[in-house]
From TrEMBL:
PANTHER family: ABC TRANSPORTER PERMEASE PROTEIN MJ0413-RELATED, ALKANE SULFONATE ABC TRANSPORTER-RELATED, MEMBRANE SUBUNIT. This is ABC transporter permease. The chain crosses the membrane at residues 35-52, 92-114, 135-164, 184-205, 217-238, 250-269. It is a multi-pass membrane protein. Keywords: Cell membrane, Membrane, Transmembrane, Transmembrane helix, Transport. The lineage of its organism: Bacteria, Bacillati, Actinomycetota, Actinomycetes, Streptosporangiales. Residues 7-26 have a biased composition (Low complexity). Belongs to the binding-protein-dependent transport system permease family.
């Protein structure tokens, strides 16, 4: 009689495969706490502002109550005159950004790609870049009599630097092995630029554009404040200064200007994350 085989331990069940998360799920989870913290910070600031005003720590003749400012800002959202001023400023901002991109990106690619051009232009770039953009407004007023042309010139001057510098630095990150490989297969300078350099530089240009958008908004309003004109947020601020409740109107309009700047930053950041998701995955 054959011996009964000894019982063997049951093979462990195969571990169930983990469900793979969608690529954007982790990023969205990281952003949600950041948004909540940001909203909480704004809320705390507004509450402290209101309490300080009511406690007499802030002079209401200098700093209005937060509640009065927010109420005035809400009313401005339905003010046709103010909305027209906003449209004028945002039109100059959009045209100025397009002009800035048309100047800064090609110039950055040329400076970053050709060593001789980089060496020749570096003194001019380093001389002009530290000059405050607001300081060129009086000179620009003498050259450009039309208000829109004046805004575009000042915006193009001040907003060019973040994009130009980021483009030049982005070219330094181009993989030399990829460049040499394409050249070994007979690809010319333009082919290397479009196939290797531009995909590498694009995230840097996007970051520079996000920074430049805030600079362009500041300069558009600054030109309106200095030069005046018929419409614009800066013109509204000047006219509000002569009214009885001018302080609340000025602070409320400034709140809207800050909100537009925040909106542009959020939109450009979201676009950057969406378009260059591959860069974060590679990192």
């Amino acid at each position: 009689m054959s011996p009964t085989p000894a019982p063997t331990a049951a093979a462990p069940a195969a571990a169930a495969p983990r469900a793979r998360r969608a690529p954007g799920t982790a990023a969205r989870r990281r952003r949600s706490p950041d948004l909540l913290r940001g909203a909480a910070g704004v809320l705390v600031f507004v509450v402290l502002w209101e309490l300080a005003g009511r406690a007499g720590l802030l002079d209401r003749k200098v700093v209005p109550l937060a509640s009065a400012t927010l109420e005035r800002a809400a009313r401005l959202a339905g003010d046709g005159e103010f909305l027209g001023d906003v449209g004028t400023t945002l039109t100059a901002w959009a045209l100025g950004m397009l002009l800035t991109l048309a100047i800064a990106v090609p110039a950055g690619l040329l400076i970053g790609s050709v060593p001789a051009v980089r060496i020749a232009t570096r003194p001019f770039v380093e001389f002009l870049r530290p000059i405050p953009s607001v300081a060129v407004i009086p000179l620009a007023m003498m050259i450009f009599p039309a208000t829109l042309h004046l805004k575009l010139a000042v915006i193009a001057y001040g907003a060019t630097w973040p994009i130009l510098v980021n483009t030049v630095y982005g070219l330094r990150e181009v993989d030399p092995v990829a460049v040499q490989t394409l050249r070994a297969f007979g690809f010319g300078r333009l082919a290397v630029l479009f196939r290797v350099a531009l995909p590498t530089v694009a995230p840097f240009v996007a970051t520079g554009t996000r920074v430049a958008s805030g600079v362009a908004l500041i300069l558009a309003i600054s030109v309106e404040l200095v030069n005046g004109g018929t419409s614009g947020v800066g013109v509204y601020l000047i006219e509000a200064g002569g009214s009885a409740d001018g302080l609340e109107m000025i602070v409320a309009a400034s709140v809207w200007a800050g909100l537009f700047g925040l909106l542009f930053d959020v939109l450009f950041t979201r676009a950057e994350h969406h378009l260059f998701r591959w860069r974060r995955a590679a990192a």
